[in-house]
Amino acid sequence: MQNRITELFKIDYPIIQAGMIWASGWRLASAVANAGGLGLLGAGSMYPDVLREHIRKCKTATSKPFGVNLPLLYPDIDKHISIIIEEGVKIVFTSAGNPSTWTKKLKEHGITVVHVVSSSKFAKKSEDAGCDAVVAEGFEAGGHNGREETTTLVLIPLVCKAVSIPVIAAGGIASGRAIAAIMALGADGAQIGSRFVMTHEASSHLNFKNSVANAKEGDTILTLKQLTPVRLIKNKFYEQIKQAEERCASLEELKTILGRARAKKGMFEGDLEEGELEIGQVSAMLNDIQPAGEIVKQLWNEFLETKDRISKM
Which end of the chain is more exposed for a tag (fewer CB within 10 A), N or C? Predict the structure, then answer.
């Protein structure tokens, strides 16, 4: 299939593996790239030297396009930008910040820039900043999320109406049927996170993957909206946050409870009680750990089957 996203990234399928912290290392990104999708390295959980190592290993493991997901609020952002340019990365997805800050510099070095948004307002700002595409991420998504709580079903048509650049849908997408649905709403491609956590190549701890496999409807929740909203699996850490919010705790108290490296503790080290377990609502549909390349092919085959079935209706 050829459309604006496959042409923009020079990939076979309009399927993007999200650059998730503590999950998206070189093994996952290269496996998705080799299968015909776009793999992303999750720079948000990497020190600069670690990012450089993963870029180099990814280049060794695949000859196909891959990119880096870069949270703009990262403290070493300037070092990350320099490494991305030095290592010749051609695709960067930015998030959690103002796209106008770094887009121009990245594009001056021939880099394709995509920004993650949760509203049509910020999608338009991303287009005005010179971004080549946007990821419109709905409320269902895991990890850090928008405060507006706009669902993917509502968000995608609004963003597609607001901008002329390609739109990649994210949030609650874990099947070929869902890809067909977001394309029917006007999106050009799908960014998928939670399903790629459930792969052999994802660097997340097995304990975390098993907790995702056991998750049911209602087991995830968007919390910490006073700080930076994040969707995670309910556990002991979440209960601490919930109790603090119910007694109207101050921002300082919430920051103290959150502490440092809470996400690493949960998703990378496997502490299912004290760690932060970021995952999407679609985790209720995920039960098996599979090879990433197999997932890409399953997604695309199911999309084609769905497209064919709908065309006959």
Answer: C
- What value does the mean pLDDT take over residues 166-177? 98
Residues linked to residue 136 through DSSP beta bridges, in sequence order? 117, 169
What integer pLDDT is reported at residue 144 of this predicted model? Answer: 83
Q: Is the pLDDT of residue 96 over 90?
A: no
Going across the sheet that includes 189-192, the strands are: 15-17, 189-192, 167-170, 133-137, 112-117, 91-95, 66-71, 39-42
Region for 37 from its dihedrals, namely left if φ exceeds 0, alpha if ψ lies in -120 to 50, beta otherwise: beta
pTM passes above 0.85: yes
Task: Give the helix/strand (H/E) hosting 115.
Answer: strand 112-117
Name all domains of the chain by residue range, CATH numbers in brackets. Answer: 4-203+287-311 (3.20.20.70), 206-282 (no CATH)
- Retrieve residue 81's tokens: 């930008």
Provide the pLDDT for residue 169.
98
Q: How far apart, in whole angstroms, are the C-alpha atoms of residue 229 and residue 298?
A: 31
The pair phi, psi for residue 85, each rounded to 5°, is: -70, -45
- Which token pair is 271? 């502490």
Q: Are strands 167-170 and 39-42 parallel, antiparallel or unpaired?
A: unpaired
CA 140 to chain centre: 12
Helices (H), the chain: 4-9, 26-34, 48-61, 77-86, 103-108, 120-128, 152-162, 176-184, 194-197, 206-213, 236-246, 251-258, 262-263, 292-311
Strand partners, 70: 94
